[in-house]
Amino acid sequence: MSFIQKLKQNKQRPLFVLAPMADVTDVAFRTVIAEAQSPDIFWTEFVSADGLIRATEIGKYKLKKDLLFDKELQRPIIVQLFSSTYQYMYEATKLCIELGFDGVDVNMGCPDKSIEKQKCGAAMIKNPELAIDVIKACRDARRDFCLGGDNADFSVSVKTRVGYNAVELDTWIPILLEQELDLITIHARTRKEMSKVEADWSHVKTVVKMRDEWAEKNPGKVVPLIFGNGDVLDISDAYEKCKNSNADGAMIGRAMFGNPWLFKDIENLNASEKFIPSREDRIKALIRQVEVFDKELGDVKSFAVMKKFFKTYMTGFDDAKEIREKIMSMESAGEVIGFLKN
Ligand SMILES: Cc1cc2nc3c(=O)[nH]c(=O)nc-3n(C[C@H](O)[C@H](O)[C@H](O)COP(=O)(O)O)c2cc1C
User: Fold this and answer.
1) Per residue in 88-112, pLDDT tens?
2) 69-78 residue pLDDT tens
3) Whole-prediction pTM value?
4) How many other C-beta atoms lie within 10 A of the C-beta of residue 63?
5) Is 286 helix (H, G, I), strand (E, B) or coil?
6) Of 15, 64, 78, 225, which residue is least crowded by CB atoms under 10 Å?
7) From atom 10 of ligand 1, which residue's Cα is the shortest distance away?
8) Looking at residue 56, which CATH number applies to its domain?
């Protein structure tokens, strides 16, 4: 049984997890989140399996930075990969098992043209045979390289949308259910909708129902958990959305911007008061994130990646705008840290 299934059994409530977000949920942001309050599960940003296996040494060095995580604090953690080639997915999953990840998730929802050109991301919805193939690659790698083989704790999951141009749950979900996944996360929009319309969690409810009916007809098979994703505002909203859709969990993305403390509210699900960070909390968190960014990623990522966080942290207190404007004009981590510490 995978760690996800065990976690769900232990918690007896919906699971609240961190969404994969490219250039956002990197090791630096995850450090700040973990030090505030960890989610039930972390996700990495998506990483190209082909790149991890085929790139030049420098290319591999850069990509492996996306696989960095604190082995004590940032746990459990699932790595998200994309590929349309069995062999690369198999080898990249092996690498991630060796690096100590708790599971692998296949991206089947990304609408980015450069990803779809590689027949990856949301393009997988249009090409189920490829989707089946890369999921099999992950499962085969688990069987071959995990202690315990098919029964290892290591999870294999998919994050997808409700369809490509239109809702296609009736055809797409039965295909995924047959793959004996541990988890399917449903981003409650089609590919065509991108993020422009409101996420429709009634689709999550439909998928949970399909899963339950499928499980009844298929005793003995691995039954995936179903997580919903899209437009969750905070923990109480996530809880409500899970209650209404019967989802096993909620995956939270953009609500994390400037709020690494979001998962603190898991501890007081029944309390009406939300945790509100102080000015000092915000400044300290930003300092910490800039420090880790500089140490771990400074040699491969542009400082602009870090700068987009400044606005999200420096808000909600009197001199926030003043501080923000000041640090936006700075070009190095040292300068920003020095200024904030003073
Ligand atoms: C900046 C950014 C980067 C993202 N990168 C990824 C990614 O690497 N993999 C993925 O599956 N989804 C990615 N997403 C989509 C989110 O995981 C999530 O599905 C989407 O934002 C909807 O959830 P939310 O409303 O809670 O943000 C990204 C979204 C944003 C805003």
Assistant:
1) 999 999 999 999 999 999 999 999 9
2) 999 999 999 9
3) 0.97
4) 19
5) helix
6) 64
7) 20
8) 3.20.20.70
